[in-house]
């Protein structure tokens, strides 16, 4: 079990909750008594996801669907068992669906990590994530493309709006939630990571990205957003201009 903290941003029609742990985050979108889950942590975080749902006064049976920012094990892993147990659908960007199915795998492996493995921070990070199931290669065979209709928003609680952010993986996606005030940035833009010496807005090391240039272009697109809170895939939430945070991360890279 992991220690987690929950922070919330209230909109006019829904509340967005960031669940922040030492290794990865997930998001709960609450609208009335219904929920949307965005990402699900590592396989070993499945029970933590359930606990976080109960902490905000809801039940896992209230989840109407889950969205993936991307299909790396630390974001998809918990959803593998949870979607099967509670019967909710899982959706991803159309370009990410094959990754979620594990028809392809765009993920850093031992060869990518080995050149950094001598660093104490990397060893501590590995010691924390391997027990959570970091080596799992399980996918979600019935993951489907986002059900986007005539409007830009997905027809799920919280009305999340996809923001194409390809690069970290081929079909990586962000989401605008909280009536557009919050950007869920996945791993395109983070505020901390277990192997990073930086705090605040930052890009992950190059070895974690499928396409480095495309990821930078995605973060550059964030500089044109009006969102005022960042919900990253790793690290604490950041209140303030998301556009400024994106600029800062690009300048630091």
From TrEMBL:
InterPro entries found in the cross-reference section: Metallo-B-lactamas (IPR001279), NDM-1-like (IPR050855), RibonucZ/Hydroxyglut_hydro (IPR036866)
UniProt cross-references to SMART domains, sorted A to Z: Lactamase_B
Listed Pfam families: Lactamase_B
Metallo-beta-lactamase domain span: 23-234
PANTHER family xref list: METALLO-BETA-LACTAMASE DOMAIN-CONTAINING, METALLO-BETA-LACTAMASE SUPERFAMILY PROTEIN
Protein name: Putative beta-lactamase
Lineage: Bacteria, Bacillati, Actinomycetota, Actinomycetes, Mycobacteriales
């Amino acid at each position: 079990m992991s220690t987690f903290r929950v922070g919330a941003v209230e909109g006019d029609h829904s509340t967005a909750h960031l669940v922040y742990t030492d290794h990865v985050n997930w998001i709960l979108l609450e609208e009335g008594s219904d929920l949307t889950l965005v990402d699900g942590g590592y396989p070993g975080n499945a029970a933590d996801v359930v606990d976080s749902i109960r902490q905000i006064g809801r039940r896992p049976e209230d989840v109407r669907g889950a969205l993936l920012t991307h299909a790396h094990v630390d974001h998809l892993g918990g959803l593998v068992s949870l979607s099967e147990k509670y019967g909710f659908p899982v959706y991803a960007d159309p370009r990410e669906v094959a990754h979620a199915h594990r028809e392809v795998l765009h993920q850093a492996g031992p060869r990518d990590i080995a050149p950094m493995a001598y660093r104490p921070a990397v060893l501590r990070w590995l010691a924390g994530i391997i027990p959570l199931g970091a080596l799992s290669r399980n996918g979600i065979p019935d993951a489907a493309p986002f059900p986007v209709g005539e409007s830009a928003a997905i027809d799920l609680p919280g009305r999340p709006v996809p923001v194409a952010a390809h690069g970290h993986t081929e079909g990586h996606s962000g989401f605008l939630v909280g009536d557009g005030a919050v950007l869920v940035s996945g791993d395109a833009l983070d505020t901390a990571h277990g192997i990073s010496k930086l705090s605040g807005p930052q890009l992950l090391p190059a070895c974690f990205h499928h396409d480095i240039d495309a990821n930078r272009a995605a973060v550059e697109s964030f500089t044109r957003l009006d969102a005022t809170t960042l919900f990253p895939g790793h690290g604490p939430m950041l209140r303030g201009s998301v556009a400024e945070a994106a600029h800062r991360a690009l300048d630091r890279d």
